UniProtKB/TrEMBL annotation:
Transmembrane segments: none annotated. This is GNAT family N-acetyltransferase. CDD domains: NAT_SF (cd04301). SUPFAM superfamilies: Acyl-CoA N-acyltransferases (Nat). It comes from the Bacteria. Residues 26-181 form the N-acetyltransferase domain. InterPro entries: Acyl_CoA_acyltransferase (IPR016181), GNAT_dom (IPR000182).
Length: 182
């Protein structure tokens, strides 16, 4: 699904929320590796589960034609600084559901970009017939958990010792979901 570009001003920055095009594929591939190396909050370490520019081109195309998929990027001064994807299921029993993920370059944390991205994903989902959005978040990422709860997500379960970080310690993963009652 493709939506109209939005210009946003918040917390002293102007940025654009838009769907990516195939011309963004190279930048998205590099940005994903960069962001993965900036935080332990994501599932991958830098360079793991690499998505090539060709992989991103395919994702961008598939997401643009599938009414149950949404891919958005945040662009500041011509540079993509974050992105979010919501991917619906093609399986009949799960066609009412979608999986959601978001990542923002660390230098742009605290500017409200994640909040705006979540709001736009949820507005789209509510009109696209998606009744449930699921996500997972490391239990130590309290800011993200608080933000998700603010938007109606609830904790559905915890996967114990689900991940191991560079410090050698195990961490739990919180499974969260938002159900549209309509």
């Amino acid at each position: 699904m493709v939506v109209e570009e939005k210009r946003i001003e918040c917390k002293n920055i102007n940025w654009i929320l838009r769907c990516p095009t195939k011309y963004d594929a190279m930048e998205l591939s590099k940005l994903r590796v960069k962001i993965d190396g900036e935080t332990e909050n994501l599932d991958r370490e830098s360079g793991e589960g690499l998505l090539t520019p060709e992989d991103f081109e395919e994702l961008i195309y598939e997401d643009s034609i599938d009414e149950k998929h949404m891919f958005l990027v945040a662009e500041v001064e011509g540079k993509i600084v974050g992105f979010t994807r919501c991917e619906g299921s093609k399986l009949s029993r799960f066609r009412h559901k979608a999986e959601f993920g978001i990542c923002i370059s660390k230098e742009y944390w605290g500017y409200g970009i994640g909040k705006v991205m979540i709001e736009n994903i949820l507005m789209w989902a509510d009109t696209a017939g998606i009744k449930k959005i699921s996500l997972s978040v490391v239990q130590t990422n309290k800011k993200a958990i608080h933000l998700y709860k603010k938007y109606g997500f609830v904790e559905e379960g915890v996967l114990i010792n689900d991940r191991i970080h560079k410090d050698g310690n195990y961490y739990n993963t919180v499974m969260m979901g938002r159900i549209l009652d309509k």
